[in-house]
Amino acid sequence: MSFLVELLVSILIVAGAGFALIGSIGLVRLPDFYTRLHAPTKATTLGMGCLLVASIALISLAEAELSVHELLITLFLFITAPVTAHMLAKTALHYDIGFVRGTRGKELASKARERVSPKENDE
Predict the structure, then answer these.
(1) What is the arithmetic mean of pLDDT over 49-72?
(2) Contact 37, 89 (CB under 8 A)
(3) Tens-digit pLDDT profile for residues 68-111
(4) What is the pTM for the complete model shown?
(5) d(Cα 66, Cα 55) in Å, to the nearest integer?
(6) In the predicted structure, residue 120 carries a pLDDT above the cut 60
(7) Contacts of 27 (CB under 8 A, 6+ apart)
(8) How big, in percent rounded to 5, are the helix, strand and coil portions of the chain?
(9) Among 93, 81, 92, 94, which Cα is nearest to 39's?
(10) CA–CA distance from 18 to each of 12, 23, 26, 45, 46 (Å)?
């Protein structure tokens, strides 16, 4: 393997580990559910993506063929992480989980409550 490939893989591994660490710290340190949801969804997904791309590059060059397993894992990760975060956020809005003062987007929560309330009154 060439020096440039090893350098690229090393940079991707360090960047991936850094993003995963930042996402994990954000999950622990951020104040409310919605901001805690944002950290692993964005940073950790990007970190895992970097690690998987490094694995694809390393295995593909070592074996001289495309590594389909890592490619499918990467695709699955990038498709499912935003969908899961969206479902968790909608559920949190439905259960009226509170915000920390200064959080923007509270008007969306009130609109969501208004849409749910008339259905409950009809029953």
Answers:
(1) 89
(2) yes
(3) 888 999 999 999 998 999 999 889 888 888 777 766 666 666 66
(4) 0.75
(5) 11
(6) no
(7) 36, 39, 40, 44
(8) 85, 0, 15
(9) 81
(10) 10, 9, 12, 12, 10
